[in-house]
Design brief:
GO terms for molecular function: lipid binding. It contains eleven helices and eleven strands.
Length: 408
Amino acid sequence: MKIWGWVELENEKMKSISSMGFWWWLNLRATLVALLVILIFHLSKKFYSKFLRTTSSSASASASSPSKSSTFHLHSPSSPISPPPDSQARNPEIVSDSDLKFLIDNLDEKLNDDDKWANVIYKQNNFLSYRAKCCKSKDRPLKYLSTTVFESCSPELLRDFYMDNDYRKQWDKTLFDHIQLQMDRTNGIEIGRTIKKFPLLTPREYVLAWRLWEGKDRTFYCFIKECEHPSAPRQKKYVRVRYFRSGWQIRKVPGRDASEIRMFHQEDAGLNVEMAKLAFAKGIWSYVCKMDNALRKYSVISHPLTSPAVSAATLIQKVPPELDTTSGVTSAAASTSMASCEPVNGESREKKLSRRPSKKLVAKSLLVLGGVICLSRGHSALGAKVAMAYILTKLRKRGDSSSQSTQS
């Protein structure tokens, strides 16, 4: 009887082992099938998009082949391009005076009274001060308004510093490449292509058009927007920025040896909104300090002529009289509105302390970041997006819980 019971026990064990093996093999097959379906889907999607690009590019090339070679050329910085006289009739102004009015209205916050602005940062030292706020739009990217005051700096120096892209390559490590594509001598509109690199992200490509104006009392304006250009076709290794609206006003601060730049910025670089906002809040002050150090060196060093001899900075247009009177309402109202949304020191410090992540959260975030990068097998963009989404979710939950505990 004992031997018979032992045999039955062994049979039960073999049955359980065989059933476990069966379910393991079934799960493995299901996983392999799911991965195969995903792979087929991605390959078909990639093939279909590539087929559409080739057909559309061939069609556009055949349609524009007679005029392409006579209008646009990719060139070196030493040979700036001015389009032929009849190109202005075919191509309307990309950046016009209406864009200048749009910029002035945004700087003076006249477009939408229902916009709810949130203070992002306010910092200052002995050489500069910086404040910024943002506003969420319904169908557009985040809008940013910022004011930076540089002590012991003239408006002309600040203008030349901002427009010198060759010098920017020396101090701005995110700027990988910049080239002038086209310069219109009749209206001062310049078109260029810029490549920017960011950690753990695919490089961003900007094809932009910009124009400068000069108003009363040494006041300067610049408006920049995205555009397309035949000399800068889209490339797989870059992410083309789809939407870009940015501009600034540079003026002398009344009664002081200082200049200020008020900036409006709205950009869709294909990033998560919360991730972009967090990166801006955490990194913008160090970037502005680096900019200030480069500005102090810019006034004393010699600048060899490596940039194009003709650019938007050398063909500054005059602000129309009807807009020059409107632009008189400048930083006084803006500074008041910016200060009104600035939190009290104690309150800001309390919020800062409540939002500071714990060591445990940081350790878990780093662990998740490393694990996701390993799982993505070297695809750093995928790993960064997933890890940052996890970290932002944790930070947001922590902020909500801390705010609820504070209110209670």
